[in-house]
Amino acid sequence: MSTVAVVTTFNPDLSVLREQLGRTVPQVKQLIVVDNGSVAADSIRALVEEFAKTRWFSLGENRGLGYAHNVGIQQALERGAGSVLILDQDTLPEPDMVSVLAETLVSSNGPDSRVAAVGARYVGVQSSHPSFFVQFRRFRFKKCFCTECGVRQVIPADVLISSGA
Q1: How is domain 3-90 classified at the CATH fold level?
Q2: Average pLDDT of 89-118?
């Protein structure tokens, strides 16, 4: 599966962004950075251009995260993406994250199920606490923690986020 990553930036920490690009670029077909009106847009562009397989787009102003995601997704689809990975500017993926997510997406789809998206849990940098997944139940929601299941177990979720912390 050819995965294209989309990262939306807004005044990012350049050292964290550099580490993110270094971790993500080897795992994907291409990485697209959509800048949402950062003050140091030229510095972000220069950093992005240091990496192979990257594209940079500037919105010129902060148009909102959803708008920036949509621009990135459209660019990814135009470049032949079989899947799109959406990341926040401070997400630091594990070395096998993209392949594990792609395998999970493929293996989760079958004659009795249609899965549109898969996501990884995150661990907050400040809190060091792992995230949970959300399942809606009638008039409430349930938090599903990965610590309650095995490694790489699939947890059905009704909400995914691009990152967190």
Answers
A1: Spore Coat Polysaccharide Biosynthesis Protein SpsA; Chain A (3.90.550)
A2: 83
